[in-house]
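Why do we care about 3D structure at all? Because function follows from shape, and shape follows, mostly, from sequence. That is the central idea of this module. The next example makes it concrete: a single protein chain, its amino acid sequence, and then its structure expressed as tokens.
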Amino acid sequence: MHPEAPLIDRRPVRTIRLVSDVPDFVSLYSDSELTPRSAAKVWLIAELIYDDFHQGFGEEILSTLPPLARLHADERFESAFASRFAIVAKRVGEGLPWLESIATCTADEMVVHIILSMIDDIDGMADPGWIERIPAHEDDDQIDWLEDLLLHDTDVLMLYNPALDGIEDPDSPINQHLGCAHLHPNDWFKPFANCE
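And the structure:
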């Protein structure tokens, strides 16, 4: 189960970086399982979403979060969550030494899920002409494959399942059985143990 892709309108003003600041994804990802074109799309979508939050349009993104997270999405949560898009963009734009280093907390994992849910819609969000000039690869835009490459697990997606209500509680039997970490939205920004 994936979060529903939010509808991002074409806004007349974008604060996204100038084209000269676009990272060289071909060089950064030439020896990586993450294709340069997929890396570019992840970076661009993260930049655009962060920009939307910055311009006050974050509600569309927040509406795609699991119900429990929406209950906790106050101004502080929204600001912290928005910043994770900028952090993910920065990590991808600098090159990932190991692919799973893109997500160091549960909020990052949700950010990656949201970004991946929008990859097929990139043409409607921005002019992706510069991305189309990056050499194509057969693994471009393979969402399930990208999830496997970029994420430790998909535990955060269990929050969408009403049958698993309460899984966010670390003391719940199902959470303890599955060994889930930081599923309660209040814990989303805590670094994973292997990232501290």
